[in-house]
């Protein structure tokens, strides 16, 4: 057997592996897009379900509006899962040119230096950013520079079943309710329906705890929620969060509180319960409005996120996500990405987006469009989240938490909420949460060399 | 005698009762899932299971509004290639361990056995980086290449190959066949039942894999069905139960039909692999 | 169709001894071996062995925002894990789940297989029905059961309401959530386990039962003293793969509970995934992965040993 022949078979096998690899590669890219001369702008997003449909409308609208660029949308799963994908694929062929990253990842994205500040394009292009909601913009700016452009912005609001309240002769909660206002309605609903309807629920969702703190004007971490320096200590164990949980506990004891848990379907189950008149009040993102309106046979009531008794509401922070432009693509692609961002912020586009989803239109001019005027005429309560957004005066505590590891922090918050909902001691749960977050913070800051 | 007959009849009735009861318990999730897939979501949410508004709307929605067909296609491609790769590479290495003598054979076999002890779940971080370095992210090959072979498959086929009758090999030697010919013409045909079992096992394994595809797929072009179903549920809005049940039914009905048809075959195949 | 009988199971050692005399080895074997075993060995090296060492390496460092190793800390990640009540509780939860799933899967599988092995008219229908969950994948099982556990419109809720029983909040309560996951897992695996057991029970020689019948031994006694010992190799095979499989459970948790409530279903593999791909803490995740590896290796080894000793009845 010659030496040459000895090599043939192993070579064939290696080739076979390579063929499989290449085959798999071409097969999966083949149907990706229609080929033409346009510059492709890969856009990663996390809008699933109905919101994805209306996002696709925006993308299609952009692609039809011009001939230079083509935005290729790619769904990445949940907000949570997307962050590591973005960080881990940076610099590879797979990475996006423009991506949607949610509020709590802002610190991580800024520190990564994987993105080009949107401000650079705004300056070059002469885009009038003053039209865009300042509260939303301030959330994603740092050192006076716009880092990312807010896109889908929501507000946490309190939903109530207005028909049920009417049926049982209960006065609806006021515009900016206190905890005890809500307790009153919830208890009345539970009693007057002869325990057929549960009064209220607050989902086990870290975002809601953060908002309760924001609305009470206290921070989650030191250094003013990270706005004046890298956070080093968590401060969840404070009077405001205790008050929040005591409010929940009071309703649990009265029997009018429903706990939907924290599973994959907790949010859905909660909404289902609300739509079916099994629960009277719940707190959720304003992004649910259009869905609630579409499927609701009952009258929908919306009011502001509740605040502690005897205090004025500080205002809540925005939720949702922003669009960031990656710096690992060519200038042409980056420009295309900004063109898309500009398009997505047009008054009509934002107005339609609000109507379709419930995310708030960020362009001031959107309010003058016939789309939103029509919406408010049909559903006057849809105006409430925008009003809440406008009334808030931005300060450190309602402008988001600039801290790395917020995803882990949310899980820790949720753990605390779960143990409290299941009867655990409030102070202990909060102390425990602080300790866990501190541990993570210490590790993160050490690993990254922050001091 | 009559007494014994009576007892037998009673016993049979009891057996049937138990058999039916357990069948109902096992099938209830299917019935509910498939039945509700024909109902409008509004009725499902009200708990109105006895609604008469039966329609195929949910199915039409699932096919037209979601990329479910693409997910199915992706999954079939990935699972089929993985299956054939397992059949090829596992049978080859099993052949080496049974019919060939080489230095450190025991050591290499021990290595294979150790691999069976190492969970792939523990290797996701470095493997992600390897696949990224190879430029395979978001392609079918990201799901195929890391699982082209399997230590379990090698082990299973080795056990089976060891029972290939001596006479066959002797006949092959007389005919002057080389190892490739013996492998292809004698060993593989003789062990086809084990190969089919491994094939089914590998296909199902790839079909069911969930964690790894989440990590390496980034678009609908390569996303597989197990992850795809999760996309139908969304983050900040709530979803359409009727359509979700319909998409689950779309996936499960064909697999179950295939299983019904091939049931007997699967059973003997599975058992073969299990005890050999 | 080939039928296996319990006597087909030849202890490994005997086979090996037979094998030696069976075939003559040739000088070219080394060359052939590299072709036949080479590709698998290379692939396993690249995608199993290398990542193991790499994971071990990462677990001795701290990792930054990008997942790069920055600071060597020795065993600090492990010490932190073991001393964290969170992680310890995760380990317990995993253990409870593994024991629960293994026990109920085997018990139910045996019950079904034993029932379906009776010679009754129409039994084939039941055999087909019982094996039906074999065609169910994680995502489908999760969807079906999520709907059943749904607290407002789910089947269990309606059922308890119809019977005027208090409704159980399946996924909000830690104990119930664990049960929910166990039930779903067992249900999903049942079809496969049933089929394997049925095949094994059918291959037990009928003469054994006939002899027992003649002696007037009860069916109950026959099951424990004839069937079980005769199918012990299958029993061990199933317990191995069920234990190892449930230690690695991920999909159902991700789809149903996401590890909650209060980490009640936050099992090891979910933690590994969660800490790395959500939390961005690759070092912690790697340390957990190494712990998982040690556990899986231990059980696999135990099962191999057990298999070797006990199966030679």
Please, could you describe this protein's structure?
The complex is a heterotrimer of chains A (451), B (276) and C (313). Chain A has 451 residues and is α/β, with parallel strands linked by helices. Chain A is 50% helix and 13% strand. Chain A contains 19 helices and twelve strands. Chain A has helices at residues 3-30, 49-65, 79-89, 106-112, 118-125, 134-139, 162-167, 179-192, 206-216, 222-226, 239-254, 266-275, 289-295, 331-344, 347-357, 370-378, 384-391, 406-421, 426-448, and strands spanning 39-45, 69-75, 98-102, 115-116, 141-142, 145-146, 149-154, 156-161, 198-201, 279-285, 300-303, 319-326. In chain A, the strands form three sheets. In chain A, strands 1, 2, 3, 4, 7 and 12 form a six-stranded mixed β-sheet that branches. A four-stranded mixed β-sheet of chain A has the order 9-10-8-11. In chain A, strands 5-6 form a two-stranded antiparallel sheet. In chain A, strand 5 and strand 6 (145-146) form a beta hairpin. The longest helix of chain A has 28 residues, at 3-30. The N and C termini of chain A lie far apart (66 Å). Chain B has a domain at 67-231: MetI-like (MetI-like fold), CATH 1.10.3720. Helix content of chain B is 75%, strand content 0%. The two termini of chain B are 44 Å apart. Chain B is flat and about 70 Å long. Chain C is mainly α. Chain C has one domain (78-310): MetI-like (MetI-like fold). Chain C has helices at residues 12-22, 29-58, 76-83, 85-116, 123-130, 138-149, 155-162, 174-202, 206-214, 219-230, 232-247, 251-256, 268-277, 282-310; strands at residues 61-63, 69-72. In chain C, strands 1-2 form a two-stranded antiparallel ribbon. Chain C is globular and about 75 Å long. Chains A and B meet through helix 1, helix 2, helix 3 and helix 12 of A and helix 2, helix 4, helix 7 and helix 13 of B. Chain C: Keywords: Cell membrane, Membrane, Transmembrane, Transmembrane helix, Transport. Chain C: Belongs to the binding-protein-dependent transport system permease family. Chain C: Pfam families: BPD_transp_1. Chain C: It is found in: Cell membrane. Chain C: Residues 91-303 form the ABC transmembrane type-1 domain.
């Amino acid at each position: 057997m010659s030496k040459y022949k000895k090599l043939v078979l192993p070579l064939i096998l290696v080739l076979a592996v390579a063929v499989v690899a290449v085959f798999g590669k071409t097969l999966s890219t083949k149907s990706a897009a229609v080929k033409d001369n346009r510059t492709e702008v890969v856009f990663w997003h996390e809008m699933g379900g109905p919101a994805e449909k209306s996002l696709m409308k925006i993308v299609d609208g952009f692609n039809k509006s011009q001939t230079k660029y083509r935005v290729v949308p790619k769904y990445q799963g949940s907000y949570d899962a997307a962050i590591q994908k973005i960080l881990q694929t940076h610099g590879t062929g797979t990475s996006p040119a423009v991506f949607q990253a949610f509020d709590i990842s802002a610190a991580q994205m800024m520190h990564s230096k994987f993105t080009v500040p949107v401000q650079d394009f705004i300056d070059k292009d002469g885009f009038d950013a003053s039209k865009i909601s300042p509260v939303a913009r301030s959330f994603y700016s740092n050192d006076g520079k716009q880092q990312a452009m807010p896109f889908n912005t929501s507000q946490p609001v309190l939903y109530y079943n207005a028909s049920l309240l009417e049926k049982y002769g209960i006065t609806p909660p006021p515009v900016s309710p206190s905890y005890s206002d809500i307790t009153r309605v919830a208890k009345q609903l539970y009693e007057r329906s002869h325990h057929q309807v549960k009064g209220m629920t607050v989902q086990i969702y870290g975002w809601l705890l953060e908002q309760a703190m924001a609305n009470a004007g206290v921070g989650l971490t030191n250094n003013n929620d990270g706005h004046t320096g890298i956070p080093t200590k968590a401060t969840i164990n404070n009077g405001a969060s205790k008050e929040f949980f005591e409010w929940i506990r009071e309703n649990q004891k009265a029997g009018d509180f429903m706990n939907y848990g924290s599973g994959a379907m907790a949010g859905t189950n909660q909404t289902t319960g609300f739509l079916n008149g099994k629960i009277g009040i719940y707190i959720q993102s304003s992004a649910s409005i259009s869905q609630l309106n579409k499927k609701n046979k009952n009258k929908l009531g919306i009011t502001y996120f509740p605040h502690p008794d005897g205090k004025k509401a500080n205002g809540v922070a925005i939720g949702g996500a922003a669009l960031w432009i990656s710096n690992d693509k060519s200038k042409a692609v980056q420009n295309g990405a900004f063109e898309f961002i500009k398009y997505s912020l047009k008054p009509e586009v934002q107005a339609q987006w609000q109507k379709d989803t419930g995310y708030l239109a960020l362009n001031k001019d959107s309010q003058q469009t016939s789309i939103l005027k029509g919406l408010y005429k049909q559903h006057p309560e849809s105006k409430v989240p925008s009003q809440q957004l406008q009334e808030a005066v931005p300060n450190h505590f309602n402008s988001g938490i600039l801290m790395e590891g917020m995803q882990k922090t949310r899980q820790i918050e949720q753990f605390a909420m779960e143990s409290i909902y299941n009867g655990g001691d409030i102070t202990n749960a909060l102390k425990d949460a602080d300790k866990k977050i501190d541990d993570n913070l210490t590790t993160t800051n050490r690993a990254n060399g922050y001091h | 005698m009559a007494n014994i007959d009576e007892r037998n009849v009673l016993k049979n009735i009891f057996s049937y009762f138990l058999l039916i009861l357990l069948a109902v318990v096992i099938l209830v999730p299917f019935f509910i899932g498939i039945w509700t897939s024909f109902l409008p979501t509004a009725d499902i949410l009200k708990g109105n299971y006895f609604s008469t508004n039966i329609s195929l709307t949910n199915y039409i929605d699932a096919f037209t509004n979601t990329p479910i067909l693409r997910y199915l296609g992706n999954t079939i491609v990935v699972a089929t290639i993985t299956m054939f790769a397992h059949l090829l590479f596992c049978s080859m290495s099993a052949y080496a361990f049974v019919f060939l003598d080489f230095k450190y054979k025991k050591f290499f076999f021990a290595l294979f056995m150790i691999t069976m002890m190492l969970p792939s779940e523990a290797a996701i971080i470095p493997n992600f980086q390897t696949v990224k370095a190879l430029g395979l992210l978001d392609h079918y090959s990201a799901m195929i290449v890391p699982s082209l072979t399997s230590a379990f498959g090698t082990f299973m086929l080795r056990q089976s190959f060891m029972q290939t009758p001596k006479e066959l090999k002797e006949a092959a030697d007389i005919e002057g066949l080389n190892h490739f010919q013996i492998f292809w013409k004698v060993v593989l045909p003789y062990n086809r039942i084990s190969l089919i079992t491994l094939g089914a096992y590998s296909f199902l394994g790839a079909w069911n894999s969930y964690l790894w595809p989440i990590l390496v797929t980034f678009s609908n072009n390569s996303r597989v069905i197990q992850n795809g179903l999760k996309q139908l549920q969304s983050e900040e809005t709530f979803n359409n139960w009727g359509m979700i049940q319909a998409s689950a039914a779309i996936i499960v009905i064909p697999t179950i039909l295939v299983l019904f048809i091939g049931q007997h075959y699967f059973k003997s195949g599975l058992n073969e692999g299990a005890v050999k | 169709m080939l039928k296996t009988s319990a006597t087909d199971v030849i202890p490994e050692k005997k086979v090996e001894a037979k094998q030696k005399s069976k075939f003559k080895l040739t000088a070219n074997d080394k060359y052939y071996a590299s072709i036949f075993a080479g590709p698998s060995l290379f692939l396993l090296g690249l995608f199993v062995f290398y990542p193991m060492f790499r994971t071990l390496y990462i677990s001795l460092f701290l990792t930054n925002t990008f997942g790069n190793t920055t600071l060597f800390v020795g065993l600090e990640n492990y010490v932190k894990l073991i001393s964290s009540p969170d992680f310890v509780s995760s380990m317990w939860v995993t253990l409870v789940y593994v024991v629960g799933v293994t026990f109920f899967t085997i018990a139910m599988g045996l019950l079904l297989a034993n029932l379906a092995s009776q010679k009754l008219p129409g039994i084939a229908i039941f055999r087909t029905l019982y094996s039906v969950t074999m065609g169910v994948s994680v995502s489908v099982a999760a969807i079906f059961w999520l709907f059943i556990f749904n607290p407002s419109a789910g089947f269990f809720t309606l059922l308890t309401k119809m019977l005027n029983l208090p409704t159980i909040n399946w996924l909000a309560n830690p104990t119930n959530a664990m049960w929910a996951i166990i039930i779903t897992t067992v249900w999903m695996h049942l079809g496969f386990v049933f089929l394997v057991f049925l095949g094994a029970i059918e291959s037990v020689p009928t003469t054994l039962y006939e002899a027992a019948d003649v002696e007037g031994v009860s069916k109950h006694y026959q099951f424990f003293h004839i069937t079980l010992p005769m199918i012990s190799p299958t029993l061990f095979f199933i317990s191995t793969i069920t234990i190892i499989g449930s230690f690695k459970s991920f999909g159902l948790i991700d789809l149903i509970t996401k590890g909650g409530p209060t980490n009640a279903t936050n099992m090891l593999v979910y933690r590994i995934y969660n800490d790395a791909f959500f939390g961005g803490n690759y070092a912690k995740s790697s340390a957990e992965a190494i712990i998982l590896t040690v556990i899986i290796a231990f059980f696999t080894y135990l099962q191999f040993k057990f298999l070797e000793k006990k199966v030679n009845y």
